[in-house]
Amino acid sequence: KAVSIGLIGSVLSSAILPLLGSSAWGAYLGLFLFYLTFEFTIVSMLPMMTGVLPAARGTLMSINIASANLGRGLGSLIAAPIFLGGFWMNALAAAIVNLLAILVLRYVIVQETK
Questions:
Q1: Which of the two ends of the chain, N or C, has the fewest CB atoms closer than 10 A to its terminal CB?
Q2: Which helix (H) or strand (E) holds 112?
């Protein structure tokens, strides 16, 4: 549930960032909200990630880090074309990726440990 809240917060902060970015203080506030919700989501994801398959916590953590690095690599390939679309396009891309993460999150089953 906390991961979903963080993702929704990230979508909202992505949506308001272009609106707040017209002034320096607005941009600072928008970036603060964006990074706050992003970090909240990452930290909230750690217990969920290790609870998916408790018997293989180390393997899942390695896969998670590898997936994050793969996402960074793929993101760098599509970043330049998105950046050419302007700030609104960047915010839209961030919101879309977060919404996709919310949809994928619905299919994650966390096993309870005994």
A1: C
A2: none
The angle formed by the CA atoms of residues 54, 55 and 60, to the nearest 5 degrees, is 70
Q: Is 110 left (phi over 0), alpha (psi -120 to 50) or beta?
A: beta
Split into its structural domains, the chain has a count of 1
User: Rounded distance, CA 16 to CA 56, Å?
Assistant: 39
Helical segments of 21-56, H only: 24-52
Amino acid symbol at 44:
S
Question: In this structure, is residue 114 part of a structural domain?
Answer: no
All residues at 6 or more sequence positions from 41 whose CB lies less than 8 Å from its CB, including other chains:
3, 6, 7, 9, 10
| pLDDT 10s digits, 13-54 | 888 888 887 889 988 998 899 899 989 988 888 888 877 778
Residue 73, domain extent: 2-105
